[in-house]
Design a protein that fits this description.
mainly alpha; about 75% helix; 3 helices
Length: about 80
């Protein structure tokens, strides 16, 4: 498996995890266990993260690898800041 394939797989896994986290903050979560900690800012951050993948896909399709790497770094930094 190439490094590019591993990175793409990691991005796809991360995207699914973000979507799952968003779902836990919505009516899809029938148990309501995570809804007590609900914050609209959390859902906004998570959905903004998914939106950025659209731009990364466009940059990737255009062959602008440096822009894709920059976007990945930006998302990683945003996530670190958000978690802290």
């Amino acid at each position: 498996m190439s490094d590019q394939t591993k990175h793409l797989a990691g991005i796809l896994i991360f995207t699914g995890q973000v979507a799952t986290a968003i779902r836990m903050y919505t009516a899809y979560n029938q148990s309501g266990s995570d809804l007590e900690e609900f914050a609209p800012e959390d859902v906004m951050f998570l959905s903004d993260t998914l939106i950025s993948f659209e731009f990364m896909g466009e940059y990737l399709a255009a062959g602008n690898v440096s822009k894709v790497i920059s976007y990945c770094d930006s998302i990683a930094q945003s996530l670190k800041t958000y978690i802290a």
